[in-house]
Design goal:
alpha/beta, Rossmann fold, 6-stranded mixed beta sheet, 3-stranded antiparallel beta sheet, about 30% helix, globular
């Protein structure tokens, strides 16, 4: 843990045997991008993949990270793999919950919302690259509605940029090289040019914000008949640099 750099990465990738979607490649891309391109301290990047990504391990790691973060911390949460919907999966009042399938058990949208709240961070980028991932903060996520009736924490709080690879009712797209959203999102944050020679730096200030990267990635996914979503709950621009 680096006491002088409170930037954190939390990466989850799961490829169930016989139903692989090259999620491990997504994790490798994200880890490399955070550590090399943005200089996140390696000891601050939690990377749980396959057999390590059990529900107990994920929740314990979330609790540990939350003990070392505050309002000024920056957190990049990135999950890739299989996702789905479940009736009353967690303890909130939302009837249908989104889930990320882990090696053992599931991680629900309520779990992630609790993690974000417990971290106290006001600088969170969340990318969920699974089917039906709109439940993890997409504009069509009903969790924000139920939260007004005392259902607990919600994904859509101030200080967060929330990006999902699908809506609450659509499937995500993946290639042999990883999830489509992750490929484009990492490319955007890396400053890679598209076929038109454009990067995600839309205002040409030499830096790429999470919002700029999100818009760039979403538009490139749309061109390939995918349906990602971006929900910008951050005031101003979120940059991953220290």
């Amino acid at each position: 843990m680096n006491q002088n750099d409170s930037r954190w990465g939390f990466i989850i990738t799961v490829d169930p045997p016989g139903d692989e979607v090259a999620s491990w490649k997504d994790g490798a891309m994200v880890f490399d991008m955070l550590s090399r391109r943005y200089g996140f301290p390696r000891q601050n990047i939690i990377y749980l993949s396959n057999g390590c990504a059990t529900r107990d391990n994920v929740l314990n790691a979330m609790k540990w990270v939350s003990q070392h973060t505050d309002a000024g911390s920056k957190i990049v949460f990135w999950a890739s793999g299989h996702g789905g919907l479940e009736l009353n999966g967690d303890d909130d009042r939302e009837i249908i919950d989104g889930k990320i399938e882990l090696w053992d058990g599931n991680l629900y949208d309520g779990d992630v919302a609790d993690f974000f709240a417990d971290s106290n961070s006001m600088n969170i980028l969340s990318v969920v690259d699974t089917c039906f991932s709109g439940e993890f903060g997409g504009p069509d996520d009903l969790e924000s509605v139920f939260a007004h009736f005392g259902s607990g924490n919600k994904m859509e709080e101030e200080g967060r940029v929330l990006i999902t690879s699908s809506t609450t009712i659509t499937r995500a797209k993946a290639t042999d090289n990883g999830g489509l959203l992750t490929i484009f999102m990492v490319a955007a944050l890396e400053g890679i040019k598209d076929r038109m020679g454009n990067t995600a730096d839309s205002n040409d200030d030499g830096k790429i914000s999470a919002e700029e990267a999100g818009f760039w990635a979403v538009l490139h996914c749309y061109a390939r008949h995918s349906f990602p979503e971006l929900n910008d709950c951050y005031i101003g621009d979120l940059y991953l640099e220290k």
